[in-house]
């Protein structure tokens, strides 16, 4: 994988994970505040990693393909 491809993959992941973490913490932050850090981290990752891999990134790639005009080429 070349540097440009890795950079684009990193950017896509960041575009999905940053708003996802922000929304998760806005919704559940107070409820989880009483838990130890390792438990909060576990709950955050166990819910957001599958979201990112199976929904967030594929959805972002679909949107990018539609806006770039590559969707009609498939």
Task: Explain what you see.
- With 74 residues, this protein is mainly α.
- Helices cover 84% and strands 0% of the residues.
- The protein is built from two helices and no strands.
- The longest helix has 32 residues, at 37-68.
Q: How much beta, percentage-wise? A: under 5%
- If you compute it from the alpha carbons, what radius of gyration comes out, rounded to the nearest whole angstrom? 16 Å
What is the share of helical residues? over 70%
* Number of H- or I-type helical stretches: 2
Describe the main β-sheet briefly. none
Shape annotation: elongated
- Spell the H/E element sequence: HH
What does the average pLDDT come to?
92
Spatial separation of the terminal alpha carbons: 22 Å
Instruction: Write down how many β-strands occur, each being a DSSP E stretch of 2 or more residues.
Output: 0
Structural category is mainly alpha
| Low-confidence sequence ranges | none
Observed structural traits:
about 70 residues; about 85% helix; elongated
Write the layout of secondary structure elements.
Blueprint: H1 3-32, H2 37-68
Helix pairs in contact: 1-2
Question: Summarize this, please?
Answer:
With 74 residues, this protein is mostly helical. The protein is 84% helix and 0% strand. The protein has helices at residues 3-32, 37-68.
